[in-house]
Amino acid sequence: MEEKSNGPKEDGNRRKNNNTVIPGPTNPMVTPLLSDLYQFTMAYAYWKAGKHNERAVFDLYFRKNPFGGEYTIFAGLEECIRLIANFKFTAEEIAFIRSSLPKTCEDGFYDYLRGVDCSDVKVYAVPEGSVAFPKVPLMRVEGPIAVVQLVETPFLNLINYASLVATNSARHRFVAGKSKLLLEFGLRRAQGPDGGIGASKYSYMGGFDATSNVEAGRLFGIPIKGTHSHAFVSSFMSLDEIVEKSLQSRDGSSTCEDFVSLVQTWLSKIKWSHLIQGIFGETNQSELAAFISYALAFPNDFLALVDTYDVMRSGIPNFCAVALALNDLGYKALGIRLDSGDLAYLSCETRKFFRTIEKEFGVPDFGKMGITASNDLNEETLDALNKQGHEVDAFGIGTYLVTCYAQAALGCVFKLVEINNQPRIKLSEDVSKVSIPCKKRCYRLYGKEGYPLVDIMTGENEPPPKVAERILCRHPFSESKRAYVVPQRVEELLKCFWPGSSDGAREELPSLKEIRDRCIQQLEQMRPDHMRRLNPTPYKVVSVSAKLYDFIHFLWLNEAPVGELQ
Amino acid sequence: MEEKSNGPKEDGNRRKNNNTVIPGPTNPMVTPLLSDLYQFTMAYAYWKAGKHNERAVFDLYFRKNPFGGEYTIFAGLEECIRLIANFKFTAEEIAFIRSSLPKTCEDGFYDYLRGVDCSDVKVYAVPEGSVAFPKVPLMRVEGPIAVVQLVETPFLNLINYASLVATNSARHRFVAGKSKLLLEFGLRRAQGPDGGIGASKYSYMGGFDATSNVEAGRLFGIPIKGTHSHAFVSSFMSLDEIVEKSLQSRDGSSTCEDFVSLVQTWLSKIKWSHLIQGIFGETNQSELAAFISYALAFPNDFLALVDTYDVMRSGIPNFCAVALALNDLGYKALGIRLDSGDLAYLSCETRKFFRTIEKEFGVPDFGKMGITASNDLNEETLDALNKQGHEVDAFGIGTYLVTCYAQAALGCVFKLVEINNQPRIKLSEDVSKVSIPCKKRCYRLYGKEGYPLVDIMTGENEPPPKVAERILCRHPFSESKRAYVVPQRVEELLKCFWPGSSDGAREELPSLKEIRDRCIQQLEQMRPDHMRRLNPTPYKVVSVSAKLYDFIHFLWLNEAPVGELQ
Question: What is the complex's ipTM, to 2 decimals?
Fold first, then answer.
């Protein structure tokens, strides 16, 4: 099916500004109850201790890039903002929480919950679709501690998979190359309904071109694609089934009364043609009937699945006969899809066959006919196809893309870094799990050639790094790892996407298309060796300013003695 | 938090009978548009060819058990029935489909779509929660070919992940053993919001005891659990923060005016007690403040996360001091949670400490205090813990359970097996991908000891296998693999769950609890060597009757010659 790019369903309210209403999350199941029970037991304990309104700052970040790579795409932000913009407990939800907590919990807590919203919460975040790195906050969420904890679980849920699948998509795009069409075909294998819908949205964001998922097309305006399955082919028994055989020519000037005969004539011409003779014998007639029926339904969009019986002996000759008959009537077939077998070999053989047809019958561009491949594709198989040589123009990728089979989870965490203006550090015997305390600012420093060199975190009130100034970047936990950087450009990473009601402007939420463009542009801006599939060069380890470094270690020593008195 | 088993939200309409209304899918995003575009292009082509009402039979099945195991739990059926019971296109949906198909598609098709529902579709299925095996249909869907194809994608989406995660849950239960409490903690890492909600539902079905997911508790009546996080602990700075220090005794007979002092007294007693002296020095005071605050909020449900600073030197002594103070007032603490470190070692050390407290201070059952463990647990780590020896009573399992990290997708397929009473076979060079044609009946044959021996498929009109009768079971594609079976019990597997409007009774949809009971009972009924984690004995390869065997091979030969004429 030709690409259909329809305006997204919610076009009217997607381009928000600070005065418009932000709609709720795409999935209506995303409510304040889509959370862990402990957020509510903690809320009660904070409330009971009179601590619920203490001002807390949490960082949301991940510790390690997925898929053995050196980058991650940040995605899911819009859904988080949609949630908090509409964060309010219904009476039914409060009744359920009451029934879930001990009877001893006081009524006042439920009165408090009834009034909870996110008007006093602030969300700073890296723009959605950005390239991101471990340890640097993707989001900083500030507000009354009980409320901020209530959004922890849904935020992590909305960010973790979105970022994982957007990254997976970008990685598949990287291996496939820019010129190939990439189609997301994973709905049937996704982890639940919005595993499917999220996969479509975030694969598109990460660089895919289209999806098979109709609902995702409707919700987000993603181009949707699809033709037919093996069942369609095997549902036909013979050519006798085709009752209505006429087809008008494309320009409406004439009508072919018996398109079936026209196809049969072409099939015979192909079979006995000088260059092809002997390549195939009898083709499968139910397949031929299916192809003809599909062409009669979609003469402008004829794309056939050719591997139900035998690709080279049946599928390709049948396809070519139909395509040539269509060509007689002014229609141009789109191509074929291969869904099994040796895709490198079959695509090359198919290309040869198409070129032979072009030569033999003088049909311009027949040799360039589109070849789509599917069947359990992933980064490895795409890479293997590239190495073997192939003639595929479009890849349909399902299971491995949408379930992120190579690594099914991203480990984003949400850590308290400050309360009541007091910095907090979470220690761990595993240094990689020690949190970086303090409310921070984060910057990306760019070098002469336009590539990002390093991300640096500073205390909130430190002066920002300046262009052309020499800056010491320190590894937060490794004393000897440090480097001077003279940035040619400095980009502040965290922007305010939700100021609550307390003050002014916030970043607009861009359209999905704009986010996708940002993502593609950011990926192109990276130094290529960070991006390669095998053994990529690590992006300069995330760093902190000298001042923040000293403060972290002061705090650490302050907390650490607990265990050392023994 | 103590287990809270609340009635499911939809209790009123969950116990359906043939006269009650079946509600729509749990996730309102599951609509007829949650499908691949090719289902609609095929529907148009069928309609255009006048073929859309031809009676088709499709089998839904998988080809291989997941996780290297020898069984699979079938789940997701109820959601499928909810979808088809409410399957109807809205005007907006039809407008979207129209905008997605070529302009040349005729108006009559949209009139047809407007009238489409599933009243003429029949669904036969294995009851939800059943143990299932490769190649035997989990579902047989019959009806007008265009309509049945429209439900293919949503059915696969609803079955694939549900069955995968239910199986994963059952496998975790098998390794953990019956006596342990298993808690699903995966919402934050799940693949999207209903990745999380589905995980909670189907983990419970597969044998977990509870979830942290509040919304899943509300929707399905699953017990929900949770206490507090590291952030709660580190949000406290010192004991001075605790303003309201009084706590009434459990029986209401007295009030302790300074619970903080009571705890401090106990901490000192523990520290200098004969058996403990020297094990710890100063404990972390912010941790102690957090524990006391939590205990004041939940004196009946005190369960503390003890690894924020140092488990044995701070968390456990702090916990014990609070638990002993609670004990003085008649409350019984629930226990502790470990979320990092060497869980085998720490749980054993913790148990020793608890027993010492019991002995030293004469507090009955203190040694049996609950120990919950979490932190990236999976089948392997549970198995390793068992081998090392541990003292954990409850496991909280998240990422690896809900994302099915070990194998993130189940490959259920939906294959045409008959159209217009003509059997259809899908060939493939890979024999494991050849479909088993014909509308079939499926039986499970049980042996003397009550174990299932083999599943057998027969043609629809063959007489069913009889108890005590000798039956030849043949491998469908391997001539030499066959066996005689004399069943002691014969169970027909596929039951009618959706008769459409055409005729009578259908199976009632059981409650989630009933499905869970069936699942646990079926798992217990399996021969243990099929169930073990490493190198399980394969369940007798799925078989067909002698008659069906002959027919398959007749059909195969009939279709196969296509490629042999060359």
Answer: 0.94
